[in-house]
Structures are given as structure tokens and as C-alpha cells.
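Researcher: Can you fold this with 6-O-phosphono-beta-D-fructofuranose in place?
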Amino acid sequence: MPGITLTRFLIDQQYQTQAVSSDLRLLVEVVARAIKAISVNVGKGALAGVLGEAGTGNVQGEAQKKLDVIANEILLEANEWGGHLAAMASEEMDDPHAIPHRYPKGEFLLLFDPLDGSSNIDVNVSVGTIFSVLRCPDGVSLPTEKDFLQPGTKQVCAGFAVFGPSTVLVLTLGNGVHAFTLDREMGSFVLTQANIRIPEDTQEFAINMSNMRFWEPPVKRYVDELLAGKTGVRGKDFNMRWVASMVADVYRILQRGGIFMYPRDLKDPKKPGRLRLMYEANPMAFIVEQAGGAASTGRERILDLQPTELHQRVAVVLGSKNEVERVASYHSA
Ligand code: F6P
């Protein structure tokens, strides 16, 4: 029996569960098509001359890779003309991107990190695309930054792709988390895992240990206890993994549990964390919660945060519920 394609899945969602409107269905299909194009470019690597620096910087002051710029262009071009969007925002652009006047406008706002984990591009390690969908506020026809500043609880859809040995698209429309694998011969995403659940407990953690000396005491206490293993208060050994691509680390957690942390630290006191709230932390938090996990800054639930800036950074602790709750309890102790 042929697999369930993303198109078929979305149509089932539209007619059976009413979880998707036809505009949202179109949006997800268009984003998935862009993700296929990004996957092709990532997969060609040095053959297509797409590796290396672009010679430009983004709003975060980070050097852009050629593939950051290519992935951003692909997403912009794909999503401009379909009539499903009011505006877009990207990690790679200072300000929101308006839909050109010549195209119809829609009711949604799309935010994305076109290529997450870009330090891994040139070394042939998994990278990915993250996206989040919000509704454009009523009565707004030319959205500005403030129209994007909605808490993560307002997301209607979120997803990410991992460009690894296979290309996988993970999606939530607010009723569970589903994974689709790209069938490269057919060019379609096929449902390979429905209703993913993250185990509540874990013996695996992910954190950049080189930042240890900058951590706040609750994080230091938590990781010290994990490292003590069987001989410490946890009474069991823990394993560590750090891909340095959030997409790959979160995908692993969806598959077998775990905790991922990029906590607030004292390395650069101006930055309340490394990851970006609107197009990294919020979509991942939505997905993780939909899969039965938890996502916190250590102090608050990520999805409840009221954003103040499009490119704001935030501390992230997410994954297996009992571990995330333990880290949060150390912050309030
Ligand atoms: O910018 C985001 C990101 O690349 C994440 O995908 C990843 O988890 C993190 O940064 C890696 O950070 P570091 O370079 O400190 O390991």
C-alpha cells in the first residue's frame, strides 16, 4: 500500500478533524516545497559551490553562510505569491518582509530560521529549517514587527526539517506531532511517524559543556548531578550528545527522549540566552509540548512569554517532562 503523503495527510486533517483550513494547507504545502528545494541545495554541497561564507552578516551580527542566504531566498520566493500570507520574518532579515503589492494577501504570518545549525554546513553534519505560523491580527493589512510579537501559545502551526542522512519534516498543527520522510525518487514527503510521544524520563542530555563556567547555579547543580551518575543523587548514569544543530538535537529527543539546554549564562550578560524566541524556541516548544514534553526558560514556560522584539533571544530548556520540571524547580529553589 502506498504511504500517506503530506498532501493526503493535510487533506485528511482538513476534512476529518477540521484542524486545517485550505489556506493553512496551502501554506504548509508551499513551505514543504521550499524545504525540498533547500534539501536539494544542501545535498549538492561542494558540487554546486554552495558551501562557505556569503561575505555578509545578519541582524544578529553573525557571518552568513552562502546556504543561509540561499535557503532564505528559497523560502521568500516560494511564499510570496500564494495568497496565504500577510508577511514573513526571518532570522536572516532585520525587518519583516512584506508581500509585494502585485500578489494577493492572506491571513497568516510566517517566521523562519532558514538554515539552523549553520556552523555545521561546511563539515557535512545535519542542519535544518525551522518555521512558525501565527495569525495576522484582525484589521492589519500591512503587518509590522509589532504584529509578529505574539506569545508562542498563539502559533497555529510549527515545524522543522532536518537535512540528515534522510530529509525529515516534523509538523504540528496543534493536534499532535507527525514526521514525514522525503522520498527523493518521488519528490514527496511521506508520513513515517504519527503522534510522536517524548518519554517523560531520560538518561540523555544535550548542552554545550564548554560554557560550564558561565552557567547559573541551578544549571550547574543539575548538570553536576547528571555527571555524578550512579554514584550521585540521581542514582543512574547519563549520556551526553551535542550536535550543535538544534534541529538534530530536538529530533533525537522526539525519537528517544532527552533534555536539551541552551540556558541563560553569564558569558555575555547582554544576551538572555543564545537561541531566538520567535523562530527557534517558540516553534520547538510548541512541537515538544505537543509531543508530551515540556519547554521552559528555567523560570517560565516558553510559550507564555510575551515577545518584545522580533529577534529576541531566550534561554531554552526542553524535552522529557520530568527532567525539564526538575531544572525549573532548581531555578525556583
Ligand atoms: O544558532 C542556533 C544554533 O546553531 C543551534 O542550532 C544550536 O543548538 C546552537 O546554535 C549551537 O551552539 P554552539 O555553537 O554554542 O554549540
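Model: Folded with 6-O-phosphono-beta-D-fructofuranose in place. Residues 107 and 251 are 30 Å apart (CA to CA).
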